[in-house]
Amino acid sequence: AIFILTIPPNFERDFARGEQPQLLLDADASDPVAAGAGTGAIPQIVQQALKPYAPPHTPAVETVVHRRYNAASRT
């Protein structure tokens, strides 16, 4: 797996309350090009999916990215 998206407990409850819950995206950065594309796209996909349910003009969630195996993203 190149990406693992972790949804924390109580995510739905926190989101429904109008809070900005966090998602954790673990990325295998041993290939920084592939990891970079995904770490840029996945938060956008999540925001678009949740946009109809989120308050206007605020990000629906915060995506925290952990780059594994190559934290500096060196090629």
Describe the protein in words:
- It is built from two helices and three strands.
- The protein is an alpha+beta fold.
- Helix 2 (32-50) links the parallel strand 2 (22-28) and strand 3.
- The protein is elongated.
- The model has no long low-confidence stretch (mean pLDDT 88).
Largest beta-sheet characterization: 3 strands, mixed
- Proportion of helical residues: 25-40%
Q: Largest sheet, order of strands side by side?
A: 1-2-3
Radius of gyration (Å)? 14 Å
Give the count of helical stretches: 2
Average pLDDT figure? 88
Q: Show unreliable segments.
A: none
The backbone outline, from C-alpha atoms, is elongated
Count every beta strand, where a strand is a DSSP E run of 2 or more residues.
Answer: 3
Helix/strand/pairing class, anyone? alpha+beta
What is the strand and helix layout of this fold?
Elements: E1 3-6, H1 11-16, E2 22-28, H2 32-50, E3 62-68
Parallel strand pairs: 2-3
Antiparallel strand pairs: 1-2
What's a concise summary of this model?
This protein has 75 residues and is α+β, with helices and mostly antiparallel strands.
